[in-house]
């Protein structure tokens, strides 16, 4: 038997050597890969720990940014902001309360004198002969105190936007010494002044100017629908009814329409037509037939 290897056995031995070499190379590569990953992880962990330590050391100085801070859900306010709160009363109601309070506020002697002085100056520069109308304040029926009513009347009549522009100023007098008596009356009492007076509206009979308490408290619906206030209505009804005592007639000046200001002597409690609510005499209404004492 010969000892020389056959060609086939030689090829097989060579293949086995190559296979063993490949396995060794792959094993070395895997070992190197594992070693590299381990070293990299240790380095990253060390760097991260160093970063946290540095950040913790500077937290109090503000260097720790919000981006590095843990996320926290935003806190919800226990109470809503003012813009989210539902108002207890709308803007229009607040405005009306303020206007009425300003008209009703108590008047000191100094305040009365100041208002009267401005009215007198306006009357003297009006071009008309200045005159003074003295009025008394009264009540009829269940209307309560008339103190607020009296303060409102004084302010409305002597406002420089009103009848002082026609040369007339107004002074409150004592009973029996007045040119006119301005009465705040319960609605059911209106016909007691004259059959021509209605429980629905205010009225003027001779030297009596009667203000309907129901209208005083609530005006009329179309007045509010037109955007006017209760304080403006009260001013209008005083000036309108006293205007009769100065010689004016209802609806003597027609409404101009197109939302122009209504004439003061238009019966605005009944209708506005195409005009806007107006508590003051127009320029065309600045006249008076009343002759009283010198201011």
TrEMBL record:
<feature type="region of interest" description="Disordered">
    <location>
        <begin position="66"/>
        <end position="96"/>
    </location>
</feature>
<feature type="domain" description="DUF3152">
    <location>
        <begin position="143"/>
        <end position="274"/>
    </location>
</feature>
<dbReference type="InterPro" id="IPR022603">
    <property type="entry name" value="DUF3152"/>
</dbReference>
<dbReference type="Pfam" id="PF11350">
    <property type="entry name" value="DUF3152"/>
</dbReference>
<protein>
    <recommendedName>
        <fullName>DUF3152 domain-containing protein</fullName>
    </recommendedName>
</protein>
